[in-house]
Design goal:
Helices cover about 20% and strands about 20% of the residues. By secondary structure, it is an alpha/beta fold. The chain has 3 domains: about 130 residues, Immunoglobulins (Immunoglobulin-like, Sandwich), CATH 2.60.40; about 375 residues, Alpha-Beta Barrel (TIM Barrel), CATH 3.20.20.80; about 110 residues, Sandwich (Immunoglobulin-like). The longest helix is centred in the C-terminal third of the chain and has 20 residues. The chain is elongated and about 90 Å long. It starts with 6 loop residues before the first strand and ends with a strand. InterPro entries: GH, GH13_cat_dom, GlgX_Isoamylase_N_E_set, Glyco_hydro_13_N, Glyco_hydro_b, Glycogen_debranch_GlgX, Ig-like_fold, Ig_E-set. Belongs to the glycosyl hydrolase 13 family. This is Glycogen debranching enzyme. It is an enzyme of class 3 (hydrolase).
């Protein structure tokens, strides 16, 4: 292609982005206050600048032009013309190459380089790729799962396969490695039904992390909301990401993406100009107010803790996010999203409301209203903690569940009543009749915190490798080391740690709500006490697939527990008589018991020394299920007088045993000795 072949005309203002036509490509970009927009075209192989063209026409807030002769594979970026007056919120700078917010593919990852960013930033900035239209994903190929079937497994695309011995080296750490048959065999045998990936949209590690010689491994610093990150691709991120999703679907596993719309990688006042800042800084971000109540464009609102906050109340940002979500569902095929710091998305623009424009737009959208929506229901801004306040069809990550279950099994007293509430769906937070019993996303561990192995091995965080003098990460972990900080060869300590892992995991799976498993917990993965491994792209974060007998035993236990939940209607979905959320019910009776067999009364729940109880679930006749769960978080064995049932109680699980195969075949009629710090499940 020669320069003489490139003829530019006015084109169309929509759709936004680069859209191929019969004889070229239409370019359209939102830049309402710019004096002009320049389109820079680059050679597909070398990134050599081919031509700079001024977009000739502006329609409202959109600059656009059609360039004849441009075909698939062409690389491009933008430069905006206008005033650079930061105090007025204007950051137009022709020396900064900008990434198209609507680009669906970038030719390479973006990494911060202070030297390359100075003056003309073109060498640092990846180029958008003109792409053939992406066909709609076949929606009929998606797993048709109900909320009661969903068991979420959280993982990082790279960390999942980076050290897997059966994954070819060329595929390790990639989209195609994550869906390799060896990985899928593990996930299906474990029994999970949904995989939730940490962010895979194009991101840039923060300058301060890069300057320390580290990186943003987790990816919570998005630059572009559409493009799958090229770090995890061999050649074509779009095609390979889509293939990954399709492969998971072929194995009956949903794909949920962690998405970051609360802030971008452009940071605050001193942050770089990469995309949105250069097109419409004033309209894309939130700012503090001055003493007169007017916007102070010198101070970015920082509800995210990452330097800036996206303004979801503006039409363009709302449209951008909605279009991006539809792209991931309709073109890539994902089943849902977990929204990072989702309270920021409900600020309209400053105060949170469940009637915010973003929530209303999602609810009426024919595509996105059917997607799985999971909120991290807080941000760090004023009034940012909003657990239980999202629209009724959302799911919410429940930190109250996490903290209560951790503390209860650690042995903290006075928590029995709250533990029981968490066990049956946290209905004090997600109220009957208004919210589904699956609304609570229950977790013991998450990517940001201790792994399950570390939760029972460390009392304190050990984040020295992050280079912040061990000051980063959460200090309130509700963890315990049971006699020695970190790794040990003490057999008694090791056995107690394994028992506590079994207690925690079984509680998670048998609780009402949506179970969320941190990927690798079933493999006894350790981060060596690091509870904030966001910058550790190494074996601290990657899965270790080498299993000794102790780790294999725990994996077998996890498989057994998930199997029990999936085979039971009551354990996965209680429909109660007094819950009008649906017009069905499957529970004939729920009974709470003291160890002596008497029904629990109010005083029992408030006895701070009461750390042992039983709960019986009897299904309606058509369900033919009767379960008894015994709990003992105390440091001594407890004798339980069991409720009456026809034929006795059949022992299905007892966490005193390292693996289910070690359990005796036992049918109990009247009494049962429950070991200290253990849980057991009977079926009647």
């Amino acid at each position: 292609m020669t320069k003489s072949e490139l003829a530019v005309t006015g084109g169309r203002p929509g759709p936004l982005g680069a859209q191929l036509t019969q004889d070229g490509c239409n370019f359209a970009v939102h830049a309402p206050l710019a004096d002009g927009v320049r389109l820079c075209l680059y050679h597909p192989d070398t990134e050599e600048l081919l031509q700079v063209l001024d977009l000739p026409q502006k329609s409202g807030k959109v600059w656009h032009g059609h360039v004849a002769g441009v075909g698939p594979g062409m690389l491009y970026g933008y430069r905006t013309l206008g005033r650079f007056e930061a105090d007025k919120g204007l950051l137009f700078d022709a020396e900064k190459l900008l990434i198209d917010p609507y680009a669906v593919r970038l030719n390479r990852p973006i990494n911060w380089d202070r030297r390359q960013y100075q003056q003309d930033s073109a060498f640092m900035i990846p180029k958008a790729v003109v792409t053939e239209p992406v066909a709609d994903y076949d929606a009929s190929a998606k797993p048709l799962q109900g909320d009661d079937q969903r068991i979420i497994y959280e993982a990082h695309v790279k960390g999942l396969s980076q050290q897997h011995p059966e994954v070819p080296e060329t595929l390790r750490g990639t989209y195609l490695g994550a869906c390799h048959p060896a990985v899928l065999k593990h996930l299906t045998s474990l029994g999970v039904t949904a995989i939730q990936f940490l962010p895979i949209a194009a991101f840039m590690p923060e300058p301060y992390i890069t300057d320390k010689g580290l990186t943003n491994y987790w990816g919570y610093n998005t630059v572009n909301f559409f493009a799958p990150d090229a770090r995890y691709a061999q050649r074509d991120p779009l095609a390979e990401c889509r293939k990954m999703v399709q492969t998971f679907h072929d194995h009956g596993i949903e794909v949920i993406l962690d998405v970051v719309f609360n802030h971008t990688a452009e940071g605050g006042t001193e942050g770089p100009v990469l995309s949105l800042k250069g097109f419409d800084n004033r309209g894309c971000y939130l700012f503090e107010r001055d003493e007169m109540g007017d916007w102070d464009y010198r101070r970015y609102r920082n509800n995210s803790g990452c330097g800036n906050s996206v303004n979801m109340a503006t039409p363009f940002m709302l449209r951008l996010v909605m279009d991006a979500l539809r792209f991931w569902v309709q073109k890539i095929g994902v089943d849902g999203f977990r929204f990072d710091l989702a309270a920021s998305l409900g600020r309209d623009p400053e105060e949170f409301t469940p009637q915010a424009g973003f929530f209303r737009a999602l609810r009426q959208d024919p595509v996105l209203s059917e997607a799985v929506l999971i909120a991290e229901p807080w941000d760090i801004g004023v009034g940012g903690y909003r657990l239980g306040q999202f629209p009724s069809h959302w799911h919410e990550v429940n930190d109250k569940y996490r903290d209560t279950v951790r503390a209860f099994w650690r042995g903290d007293k006075g928590l029995t009543a709250e533990f029981a509430t968490r066990l049956l769906g946290s209905r004090d937070v997600f109220h009957k009749g208004h919210r589904s019993i699956h609304s609570s996303v229950n977790n013991i561990t998450y990517h940001d915190g201790f792994t399950l192995q570390d939760l029972v091995s460390y009392t304190e965080r050990h984040n020295q490798a992050n280079g912040e003098q061990n000051r980063d990460g959460h200090g309130h972990n509700l963890s315990a080391n049971y006699g020695h900080e970190g790794e040990t060869r003490d057999v008694e300590i090791l056995e107690l740690r394994e028992r506590q892992k079994r207690n925690l995991f079984a509680t998670l799976i048998f609780s009402q709500g949506t179970p969320h498993i941190l990927g690798g917990d079933e493999l006894s993965r350790t981060q060596k006490g690091n509870n904030n491994a966001y910058c550790q792209d190494n074996d601290i974060s990657w899965f270790d697939w080498q299993l000794n007998q102790r780790k294999q035993d725990f994996l077998s236990f996890c498989q057994r527990v998930i199997q029990l939940r999936r085979r039971s209607r009551l354990l996965s979905h209680l429909n109660l008589h007094d819950d009008p959320y649906s017009n069905q019910y499957n529970v004939a009776k729920i009974g709470w018991y003291r160890p002596d067999g008497a029904r629990k009364v109010v005083d029992d729940w408030h006895d701070v020394n009461n750390q042992a109880f039983a709960v019986a679930l009897r299904g309606e006749a058509s369900y033919n299920e009767h379960w008894l769960l015994l709990i003992n978080a105390s440091e001594h064995d407890v004798d339980f007088q069991l409720p009456d049932t026809d034929g006795g109680w059949n022992l299905m699980l007892d966490t005193r045993y390292a693996q289910p195969a070690h359990m005796p075949d036992q049918i109990t009629q009247e009494t049962f000795n429950l070991s200290y710090r253990s849980l057991c499940l009977f079926k009647g």
